[in-house]
Amino acid sequence: MSQTLIDPQLLAQRRAEFLRRLGGAAAVIPAAPLVTHHADVEHAFRQNSDFWYLTGFDEPGAVALFLPHQPDNPFVLFVEPRDPSAEVWNGFRWGVEGAVQRFGADLAHPRSELAERLSGYLDGAEGIAFRVGRHPEVEPLVLQAWGRQLDRAPRSGHAALGLVSPCPLLHDMRLRKAPEELERLREAARISAEAHELARRVVRPGLSERQVQAVIEQHFLEQGARGPAYGSIVAGGDNACVLHYTANNASLKDGDLLLIDAGCSLSDYYNGDITRTFPINGRFTGEQRALYELVLAAQEAAVAAVGPGQTAEGVHATAVGVLVEGLLELGLLCGERDGIIEQGAYRHLYMHRTGHWLGLDVHDVGAYRLGEHPVVLEPGMVLTVEPGLYVSDRLAVPEGQPAIDERWKGIGIRIEDDVAVSEHGHENLTAAALKSVAAMER
Ligand code: GLY
Ligand code: MN
Ligand code: MN
């Protein structure tokens, strides 16, 4: 079990803010369970990010209660108790005492007592904040406790009547990164960028994608990260046109490009997410260079569009605008710019969005739209900017658009940086991973 400890004051501040936002509702926030992937072999434990953000407690199977109606004891943890015979197999547990002494719980109990105690803790709450559909082990207990509250309502005159989601409140908090969190994202970005620089130096024809993956992930581990934040994508040639390619088992070919999408996850779960694309033999062909320069121009324009008062939709629209204009010039699209964008007649070449929030989750939480309105970027928000072009036969060319000449096929390019919104503009957290045409060649 990891012993990573988060600043207790920072955690206490987050909890106080969450309790304030809950109003009269009591929140039930479960930890992640251990996940088995074959036979009885478990994946390395990965804490639930909501639970981690509020508790800094890195053990499976726990449950946190946040009880604004109980101001003297608003933070209650249910945890697996100390147990030498279990700890000899799976490692140290903080137990009930540790939950109070090291993690600031006002009260703590063994997890096995949740079923009998939950309804009592909800007495006096106006509602229950719990994310239905995500926590199969805890959900029946919450529904049962809610049922008991409803049974009691006619006699007591009040009960936790409504079940609501804690996500909008909590994810709005997680969307705005505190200075301490930005520091951690800078560290994840640093290690991830270094790994990309190392990988580019070793790449040559004949190496396997997996050998390049090994260089990247070795660096993550050497630097103290938990490992990759997501399945590293090391995709030579046409494999780069498969957006979620993770087989990484092909041999790198002279004349192809290599797309690497990889980032590390730190001990406290903050993530990097970087993509770079470069020629395996050190020299772009004419077609590769033309498309690379276009994606780079789109990416740089999109990064420049990140700033307070802007929107992620605006960032995406900027990238799409540059890509479509360039594709028209290259003859890979035909017609009129705005019409192509409106109809999405470029989507056989660029089929994903330009970015996502980044934080404790790689595809981090937080709304992109509130009703009709796109969320406006504010200092502390962090997003990826990752336009690309993927030329293959997989998607049909839309009616009215030109057939693609063979010389372009098998070229997949993405360039991805992690960008924090700052007071007056933005900070590119991953600028240390080079991306100019000159840097990609050797
Ligand atoms: N590596 C996942 C993504 O770029 O969204
Ligand atoms: Mn990525
Ligand atoms: Mn990404």
- What characteristic shape results from the CA principal axes? globular
Mean pLDDT: 97
Residues in β-strands, percent: 15-25%
Task: Bin the helical content.
Answer: 25-40%
Determine the N-to-C terminus distance: 44 Å
Briefly say what this structure is.
This protein is of the alpha+beta class. 36% of the residues lie in helices and 17% in strands.
Describe this structure in words.
The protein has 442 residues and is α+β, with helices and mostly antiparallel strands. Helix content is 36%, strand content 17%. The protein folds into 2 domains: 8-172, Creatinase/prolidase N-terminal domain (Creatine Amidinohydrolase, Chain A, domain 1), CATH 3.40.350; 176-440, Creatinase/methionine aminopeptidase superfamily (Creatine Amidinohydrolase). It contains 13 helices and 20 strands. A 6-stranded mixed beta sheet has the order 6-5-4-1-7-8, with helices on both faces. Strands 10-11-13 form a 3-stranded antiparallel beta sheet, covered by helices on one side. Strands 16-19-20 form a 3-stranded antiparallel beta sheet. A hairpin with a 2-residue loop joins strand 14 and strand 15 (373-374). The longest helix is centred in the middle third of the chain and has 24 residues, at 179-202. It is globular, with a radius of gyration of 25 Å. It starts with 7 loop residues before the first helix and ends with a helix. The chain binds glycine (GLY) and manganese (II) ion (MN) (2 copies). Glycine is lined by residues 230, 261, 273, 356, 362, 386, 416. One manganese (II) ion (MN) binds next to loops.
